Amino acid sequence: MMQDSFIRESIPNTNLNFNKDYDFSYFNDRFLDHNSAISSKYVNEDCLFNSLNSDINVTALSSNIQSLPSKYDSLLNFLAVAESKNCCFDIVALQEIWQLRDESLFQLNDYIYFGSERKKSRGGGVGFFVKSNLGAKKLKTSSIFIENIFESLVLELTLSSKEKVIIVNIYRPNNHKILSQKDQFTEFFRAYDELLNRVSQLHRPIFIFADMNIDLLKIRQNDHAKLLLDASASVGLTQIITKATRIQGTSFSLIDHIFTNVEDSWSAVLTDSFSDHFSTICHIANRSKKSANPVKKVRSFTQDNFEKFHTFLSHSSWQSVFASTCPEEAWQNFWNLFYTAFDLHFPFKIIKPNKGFIPIKGFMTPGLLVSRKEKLKLDLKRKTIPSEENKISYKSYLAVYNKTIKLSKKRYFEDKFAKFSGNPKKTWDTINEISNKANSKSVFPDFIEFEGKFINSSTKMADSFNDYFSQAGVKVAESVGISKHSFKEFLPPPQSNSFYFAPLNFEDVRNAIKCLKDKKSTDINNVSVNFLLKYEFLLSFPLAHIFNLSIEKGIFPSGLKTSKVIPVFKKEGSINDIQNFRPIAMVNTFGKVLEKIMAFRLTNFLNRNNFFYENQFGFTEGRGTNEAILKIVNFISESLNQGDYCIGIFLDIKKCFDTIPHDILLLKLENYGIRGILNDWFKSFLSNREKMVLVNGVLSSVSACADISVLQGSILGVLLFLIFINDFMNVSDLLKILYADDSSCLASGPDLKELETLVNKELQKISLWFKCNKLVLNDKKSKCMLFSVKRKKENINLFLNNNDLDEFDEKKLLPLEQITNNSKEPFIRVLGFHINETLDIQDHGSILASKLAKAVFLLNRVKHLMSLKTMKMLYYAHFHSHLSFCSMFFPMFSQKMLNRINILQKKAIRAVAKSSPKAHTNKLFFRLEILPLNLLIDFNLLQFMHRYINHKVPETFANTWPTIFERNNNMRDLRRSGEFYIKLCHYEKLKRHPLFNLPKKWNELKDPVKFMLDCIGFKSSLKKFLLNHIDISECKDPFCYTCGKVTQPVY
Q1: β pairing state of 267-270 and 145-146
Q2: Does residue 605 surpass a pLDDT of 90?
Q3: CA–CA separation, 487 vs 484, rounded Å?
Q4: Between β-strands 251-253 and 279-284, what pairing exists: parallel, antiparallel or unpaired?
């Protein structure tokens, strides 16, 4: 154990890592960023010395030492013990060093000391001990030191690879003798933003070691923690310390931080420390290490090959195909001819990765590649013959070279945008390329755990996934209990009309191919939609004949039934756990065309017969997540306004797409009018399918698909699932809102006990429906919530009841977890929207703010390379897309949350306009024709109401907001009769809810624009109207820093 260290005998170190109260990653995954995989661990000395990796170039230790003069011997002893264990700390960052008076008394062998101390008071201060071989130098122009407010020190290191790294040390005192806490935080964040602005402009890897006395474990209650993360994320910095760093009895906090823009940085918290703070540790890795890339075998898709294949197809008569009267034979004849030519014209070739396995960027022209070689020659000459002339020559050439690259990069992207101006997909691809997302692949682990074994071979992983996907749905289906009831009890009367499939012609097939998404991802035979689109005219004739035979005979050709399955991580739980992956089927590309045609015609038939449940919002035209969430929120708001309790049940179905019994599905299809030969066709489509799983370019062996799958990822799979679950609407009197498999059930009433009894009875009916349909509800993931305006918070006891209606077995009662504000995760995520028991959406706002902060970082990173037009496209793609989602609910935010989001939008606008970090934004919004937050909210609210008036919203919203004229039974034509009647709202908070706010906003709109009938014209005119309400007059603030009326503080 470290000598003279601060001892905590009451803390069992072995148990610290398992206590979620101490773990910020628990909050981070659930509260801020669902894609986060950052986690640090507690270690003691022995564990630390055994775990440090000698292959990592630089290791840093940070600690609040609380007086270096008094703890110097402890620090010296610790470093000596570490080195005796072959464990070296290259950087030691210290906070609260206090005044040293004589630095020569506190030197460490082979370290150089850098420090910044207070001049006017004792305490505080920051310092670094840095290994002499790292070439550290102090960056005075980047450092900011304001005593008792913001004390920092910035150094630049040069690693052995000649890479530059910026390290920052920050200390924020917890109190100030003169300033209020509010003013102190205001000055702190002003200085922090300024420091971030300075160091981010250096374009280096950054590590910030800090004791800011801001507790991230209290992020839900602490606005300063949210602001800290927002500010850091806006320049690409992530907090990598996830454990409490100060524990005293029952009190604990995470106030010591490490922020970095380097991915995959290892970090830990050392429990043997120098003060009442734990020390933090991280690795600063040399990112010049190369990773091996396997040799690839790919088809040679060259323009010349495409043209030759086109010539071949144009001369093909397909005589053997048209002569066939059996769909299996017709398909096989087509495939033999097609694939022989395909294999001949597009042979496999071996792809060897270029040096470093990094593809040459498109903006690196041949001239620039030559210039790069010249630059390297000059650099070598400068190093081998270090004269002043060679040094100046190299620097001059480097400046011109870097400037040319920037211009080339800018021209390259501008040309791509101009070239693809009429192609939305290509435009998005270019946007993703700018954002370094063009070639991003789904996350995949180095190993997986399956049946108690750790597997790292790609071949074995592929086979393991294949086995798991084959078994998973079957195991769930086998867990369904036996019921005396039948699924037929819930079906509506048989549909009198029968589905008729008219014969296809050439144009039907051609149009179906054109409607497919232009993707380059290939099926099991290496054929992509992108490839098929090149030859849609030539292939539509034989395909129309094959498809007509398929429908006519009720046979789906077996050659179209083999799928390539891609395991996709759910972004929940461990990435090494095979259970946290879902199978996405990439079906045969030609079969996808037939699926598209069948789905289109079947959907039209079902719509003509008003088949779909009115509150089914998933994968149906004109309906989406916004409408589904609005239906839920409106029901809860109405209940609360009446003073009632409202209970929400949010159901999760286990392996829903992999547990649909085909026999029940086919009987349901027959009941709904899909009869005879077409029912046989669907039976053939679903049966005897095969799959192969692809992992790291390696395919598994072929295996049969279970007869309970509708293929997640196929076109017909989603539609068949919606058909299967549609009679769920008949099972209960609860309001049921569905988005595909996401089911929300709601009920309200004035008496809680009666309501609880009612809901439990309805839950038994719901459980019975799932049982009869051989589906399984996940009692661990299904949740319930009680909404109420009453101050007294009450508990409810709800159960998934697997008993039949006339039996009772207590063992079949599965309790539902009630989510309250005291829960570890105090909200429920409904279709990407986060609500809690008071219908408070502040949690949603915090999650949104973290996404917006990352978008601000992206905009700042590329603003110097892109034109204004391109920056606006990036703004709409990466910032506005998040900001506009569910924006009709933003009035429910607190003013503090609105201010937080507003600040982030202003930062984004300044980045788009390439303005100074503190520029006034009103003129920028007006010039860019972008609506500021308050007007954007109004814009989306008014757009919805315009659609409502013109009957462009789902019918389930009919009569939600009657006009005054309708309210008076059309009897009295009053002056305001055309306005909406606004219900009496009994609670001030509810006035900001859409149920009351939507009609109010429409009534307040006095401009003639509201009388336009055309939705597109209304949208355009409304935006112009709102833009004209932006105040672009000169600033009249006599104390405005931006305008220069008051001198800004110099940091």
Answers
A1: unpaired
A2: yes
A3: 10
A4: unpaired
Instruction: Look at residues 187, 92, 201 and name the one whose alpha carbon lies nearest to residue 139.
Output: 201
365 burial class (0-12, 13-18, 19+ CB within 10 angstroms)? middle
Task: Measure the CA–CA gap between 88 and 166, rounded to whole angstroms.
Answer: 20
Element (H, E) at 568: strand 562-569
Give the residue with greater pLDDT, 767 vs 415: 767
pLDDT of residue 784: 96
Average pLDDT in the chain: 86
Q: For residues 662 and 773, is the Cβ–Cβ distance under 8 A?
A: no
Residues 6+ apart with CB under 8 A from 34: 571, 572
Contact indicator for 681, 666 with CB cutoff of 8 Å: no
pLDDT tens figures, 365-383: 888 878 877 877 887 777 6
Separation of alpha carbons 1033 and 1021, rounded Å: 23
For tokens 């320049």, the residue is 235
Question: What is the structure's pLDDT at 1025?
Answer: 94
CA distance 292 to 310: 38
Q: Is the pLDDT of residue 1010 over 90?
A: no
Terminal-to-terminal C-alpha distance of the chain: 42
Cβ contact 375:382 at 8 Å: no
Q: CB neighbours (10 Å) of residue 805?
A: 12
* Measured CA distances, 359 to 413, 430, 834 (Å): 17, 16, 41
Identity of the highest mean pLDDT range in 36-40, 412-416, 467-471:
467-471
Q: Which residue has the tokens 């009442």?
A: 276
Distance CA 130, CA 159 (A): 12
Conformation bin of residue 1023: beta by default, left when phi > 0, alpha when psi is -120 to 50: alpha
Whether this prediction's pTM lies above 0.90 is answered by: no
Residue with the bigger pLDDT between 368 and 574: it is 368
> What pLDDT score was predicted for residue 1039?
67
How far is CA 456 from each of CA 290, 445, 582, 735, rounded to the nearest angstrom? Answer: 20, 9, 19, 48
Instruction: Tell me which residue of 285, 276, 278 sits closest to 54, measured CA to CA.
Output: 285
pLDDT digits 0-9 by tens, 303-325: 999 999 999 999 999 999 999 99
- What would the two tokens of residue 818 be? 């009630």
Can you read off the two tokens belonging to residue 582? 């879902």
Give the Å distances, CA to CA, from 855 to 414, 812, 1042: 21, 48, 24
Cα gap 863→96, rounded to integer Å: 38
Q: Token match 């042979």: residue? A: 347
Task: Give the Cβ contact number of residue 988 at 10 Å.
Answer: 7
Instruction: Specify the range with the lowest mean pLDDT, choosing from 70-84, 324-338, 484-498.
Output: 70-84
Residue with the bigger pLDDT between 361 and 365: it is: 365
Tell me if 131 sits within 8 A of 111, measured CB to CB. Answer: yes
**Within the chain, what is the greatest distance between any pair of CA atoms?**
99
Q: How buried is 608 (Cβ within 10 angstroms: 0-12 exposed, 13-18 middle, 19+ buried)?
A: exposed
Burial-class residue 331 by CB neighbours within 10 Å (0-12, 13-18, 19+): buried
CB 435 within 8 A of CB 427: no
Closest by alpha carbon to 592, among 527, 662, 499? 527
CA dihedral 66, 67, 73, 78 (to 10 degrees): 30
Tell me the C-alpha distance between 581 and 815, whole Å.
Answer: 27
pLDDT tens digits for range 126-185: 999 998 878 889 999 999 999 999 999 999 998 876 788 999 999 999 888 788 888 999
The H or E element containing residue 375 is: helix 366-384
Cα Rg for the chain, rounded, in angstroms? 33
Classify 277 in phi/psi space as left (phi over 0), alpha (psi -120 to 50) or beta.
beta
Instruction: Check if the beta carbon of residue 882 is closer than 8 Å to that of residue 851.
Output: yes
* 424 vs 374 pLDDT, higher one: 374
Nearest to 596 by CA among 678, 514, 536, 710: 514
Place of tokens 């989603």: 718
